[in-house]
């Protein structure tokens, strides 16, 4: 027979109401009591009944996740981590792909639209604006990513400038001074590239190193093909760099391929660092060093923040909370001392 709230209450020595409060992540439960009830939930294998909860609370038990493109490995891995974070909270997750289009991002948040299918949404936008968020939304929203960092709304993400500085400092500490950056962006939706370029230039300036002409590359695309094309251009320059900072791991994959095709040894002749620390990085040749902002932590904090918004009284204006996730450099074999 399925484990019930009453079974958990008896096992933990508390009331059924207390078990319900813990299971639904309601506040105002003493930490010690919450831990004891959670141990009983885990030991007995209790699972929330979404239909019953919906009748009690008027909620669907479903969260939404909106990302630009699931074919991009970063967003696929983020979606996977968010599914797990929602499941850990006893909730389901519905994933929508927006292609980064403002109208798609807006339409799924309007009252009466897709928003009616979920209790709240986690959104990684490329087009949405502050005026869009000032309109009445169909559900509470937590934003992710660089485009949303300056919007007045609850937000979770990394510090791109500081992380870019750390990446360059890693290369400088290895003795590199001829460093190029691949991933610059201009125009709408280019906040990621601009922030990382800012950090690159700041670290070079602080170290007293010049950023030579042509060393900040805007790739033709932000995938492996774009990374490979950028490297071929850099290698054809009068003074090729000895280290490459790529603004995502896919660009770095292309960089590694182009260097291998040119019979240039990594890291003996050129070091390469990527960004996102994708799951396959340890299997590249050589294994790719990468900037890591843990996607599991981003997902977990976004779900936690969204649940806190759902716990607020209806009509409450959400505070523009900013949760900055720590970054670090995952060192592997693709970076080494300058020749």
From TrEMBL:
PROSITE patterns: HTH_LACI_2. SMART domains: HTH_LACI (SM00354). This is LacI family DNA-binding transcriptional regulator. It comes from Nakamurella aerolata. Residues 3-57 form the HTH lacI-type domain. InterPro entries: HTH_LacI (IPR000843), LacI/GalR-like_sensor (IPR046335), Lambda_DNA-bd_dom_sf (IPR010982), Peripla_BP_I (IPR028082). Keywords: DNA-binding, Transcription, Transcription regulation. The lineage of its organism: Bacteria, Bacillati, Actinomycetota, Actinomycetes, Nakamurellales. Pfam families: LacI, Peripla_BP_3. One of its GO terms (molecular function) is transcription cis-regulatory region binding. SUPFAM superfamilies: lambda repressor-like DNA-binding domains, Periplasmic binding protein-like I.
């Amino acid at each position: 027979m399925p484990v019930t709230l009453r079974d958990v209450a008896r096992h933990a020595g508390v009331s059924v109401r207390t078990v319900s409060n813990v299971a639904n992540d309601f506040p105002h439960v003493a930490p010690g009591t919450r831990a004891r009830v959670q141990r009983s939930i885990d030991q007995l294998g209790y699972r929330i009944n979404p239909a019953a909860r919906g009748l009690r609370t008027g909620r669907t038990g479903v969260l939404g996740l909106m990302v630009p493109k699931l074919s991009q490995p970063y967003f696929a891995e983020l979606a996977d981590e968010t599914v797990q974070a929602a499941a850990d909270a006893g909730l389901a997750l519905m994933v929508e792909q927006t292609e980064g289009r403002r109208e798609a991002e807006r339409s799924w948040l309007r009252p009466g639209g897709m928003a009616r299918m979920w209790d709240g949404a986690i959104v990684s936008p490329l087009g949405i604006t502050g005026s869009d968020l000032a309109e009445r939304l169909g559900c509470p929203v937590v934003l992710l990513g660089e485009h949303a960092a300056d919007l007045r709304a609850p937000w979770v993400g990394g510090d791109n400038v500081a992380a870019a500085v750390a990446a360059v400092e890693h290369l400088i500490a290895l003795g590199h001074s001829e460093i190029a950056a691949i991933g610059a962006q201009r125009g709408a939706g280019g906040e990621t590239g601009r922030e990382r370029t800012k950090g690159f230039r700041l670290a070079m300036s602080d170290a007293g190193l010049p950023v030579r002409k042509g060393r900040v590359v805007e790739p033709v695309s932000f995938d492996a093909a774009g990374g490979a094309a950028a490297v071929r251009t850099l290698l054809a320059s009068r003074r090729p760099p000895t280290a490459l900072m790529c603004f995502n791991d896919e660009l770095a994959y292309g960089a590694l391929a182009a260097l291998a095709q040119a019979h240039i040894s990594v890291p003996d002749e050129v070091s390469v660092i990527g960004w996102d620390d994708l799951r396959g990085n340890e299997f590249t040749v050589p294994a790719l060093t990468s900037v890591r902002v843990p996607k599991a932590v981003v997902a977990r904090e976004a779900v936690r923040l969204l649940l806190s918004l759902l716990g607020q009284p209806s009509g409450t204006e959400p505070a523009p909370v900013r949760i900055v996730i720590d970054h670090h450099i995952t060192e592997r074999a693709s970076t080494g001392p300058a020749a």
